[in-house]
Design brief:
Layout: H1 8-33, H2 38-63, H3 65-77, H4 85-92, H5 103-114, H6 118-121, E1 124-125, E2 131-132, E3 136-142, E4 148-154, H7 162-175, H8 183-200, H9 203-216, E5 223-224, E6 237-241, H10 248-254, H11 257-278, E7 280-282, E8 290-292, E9 298-300, E10 306-308, H12 311-325, H13 329-339, H14 347-361, E11 368-370, H15 378-389, H16 399-418, E12 421-423, H17 424-439
Helix pairs in contact: 1-2, 1-7, 2-3, 2-4, 3-4, 3-7, 3-8, 7-8, 8-16, 11-16, 11-17, 12-13, 12-17, 14-15
Amino acid sequence: MGTPPKSRFGRLAKLGGLTSKVSGSYLGQQVRGLFQTDDERSSSMRDLHIENARAVAEAMSQLKGAAMKVGQGLAQALEGTDLPPEVAGALGRLNDKAEPIPFDIIREDVERSLERPLTEAFASFDPVPLGTASLGQAHAATLPDGQQVVVKVLHRGIEHSVDSDLSALKTMFISGRILRRNRSEVEEIFEEIRDRLTDELDYYNEAANLEYFHTAFAHDAAISVPRSHPSHCTDRVLTMQRLPGMPIDRFLAVATPKARQRAGLALARSFHVMTYELGRLHADPHAGNYLFDEDGNVGLLDFGCVKDLDEAFVSDYARLALFALDLRRDEVVAKLREMGFLESDRPEAAEVIWEIAQVIIEPFRAGMYTAGSSRDAVQQKLKALGPRVLRYPEIRTVKEGIYLHRALGGTYAMLRKLETRADWGALTRPYLERAAARGAGA
């Protein structure tokens, strides 16, 4: 695979050419459809969606950077209901891995940013990266006082591709009908992704997030957040405490049932505290952003993508969840309309969104329930509802909920891996009631 174009013109040319190809393919199908039966038209359109989704995913994979992050954000933020299955499948194969940046370049960038030689800033600095993602690269290092740290270095020029990549991709998704949603909804989705991407490109912002969440969870013995080292942080270099622990696959291979349970409950607790008490959410909850020790204590990593939740939205969302827990259908539908998730009075659309709510709430009404057990069919049921959701554009994603649902889905996926067992309704209800009460002025 060739080197991805780095210039704004080169990236726009690649994406612009693909936009024209995708749009033209649908126009061509409209003409061919005049001479096809209904079944032939449906089959041809399905094949075209798959072909175009694969082409878009491949382009994002080659371009890396913002394009890759947009693809991941769309796949994760809209998983289960809003993406056509063929698009979700193509985007879901994207990963955040990139070719390592040569150490000479890393050295130059760190020294320029910290304004001192690498040997002066660090007692040791491992030239082999811990990992390379689409936006930056991480290295293990040691400070002069002996503290073990991780140093993240932002890729050169990555910030210059964000606006151009987002603009071209948004045009493609709208004109090419890759997302079969109304234009205003797609605009909101891309605006929210852009805001979070902008945050991720500012390491001063991430350093501040680390300090905030380190303090917020300091009282919880099962949850750790690394501290930053301000003397070694800039807008392009982030130096943070290196937490002990192992990735989830290694943890699952050696953990006792007790340790797995402790880890799962810690993850669930962290989501509830961040959402309903702090109103600030770690919004990138995939397996690579957690470390586990042998006792089941959890280290939370990578706080570049943090969503600040509107207090009124959190209160409304808590009330919505309480209505669903109590199977109060009319109140659920009314609250969904009030919050913008449902934009019509059509009873058919209301019935579909109520079915979604019932599926999501199943584990919370089941008493003791093990996420990831053979009894847990939430993901399969949501996926089955996807085609029905697509018939009703009035069932929509609201901007404030995009990363909340991404975090909820990512946390649930981790709980499934850990096979965490709890009375989820009893665990969640106190958080909901307190958030709803705050919204009412209590």
